[in-house]
Amino acid sequence: MTRTITPAVLYICAARSQDTPGLAVQRAEQEGRDFADHRGLHIGVEITDPFGEPDPQKRSGWMRVREMAERGEVEVVITRWPNALSPVSEWRYPELDHLGRHGAQLLFSWAPLGAMVGGGSTR
Predict the structure, then answer these.
(1) Is the dihedral of CA 92, 70, 9, 51 positive or negative?
(2) What angle do CA 100, 103, 109 make, to 5 degrees?
(3) Domain holding 83: CATH number?
(4) How far apart (Å, rounded) are the C-alpha atoms in residues 71 and 55?
(5) Of these four, 33, 35, 66, 91, which has the most CB atoms within 10 Å of its CB?
(6) pLDDT tens digits, one per residue of 73-106
(7) Which residues 6+ apart lie within 8 Å of 31 measured at CB?
(8) Is residue 122, in this structure, part of any structural domain at all?
(9) Which residues, 6 or more positions from 85, have their beta carbon under 8 angstroms from its beta carbon?
């Protein structure tokens, strides 16, 4: 029996404390790992951006996520909640479309949100 492994990236955009990971980053990391383990996803890479820039296309980490999707290196992007992508909802949709065009989807690891949208999927 062969088990396929779905390649995923854990994307974290959270506040940091004086150049060290703060509680928000630690929670996002642990939730993301637990979420992936529970769903049989393999996190190949963790990418972080500091919280503060609302435009995802102005963040180096998010641009790396986009490029991985374009190259077909990732099928799932895990992040804690929509504000990690952007606090401006209108800026999220083009990013979701971009991922979808390249065969990737965005899933939310925060349990209450995941339960509300059917397992955390944006598709």
Answers:
(1) negative
(2) 70
(3) 3.40.50.1390
(4) 22
(5) 35
(6) 999 999 998 999 999 999 999 999 999 999 999 9
(7) 80, 109, 110, 111
(8) no
(9) 11, 13, 56, 62, 79, 91, 92, 95, 96, 106
> Is residue 69 over pLDDT 80?
yes
Count of structural domains, the chain: 1
Q: What is the 3-state secondary structure (H, E, C) of the chain?
A: CCCCCEEEEEEEEECEECCEECHHHHHHHHHHHHHHHHHCEEEEEEEEEECCCCCHHHCHHHHHHHHHHHCCCCCEEEECCHHHHCCCHHHHHHHHHHHHHCCCEEEECCHHHHHHCCCCECC
Residue matched to tokens 């397992």: 119
Quick one: tokens of 108? 């939310």
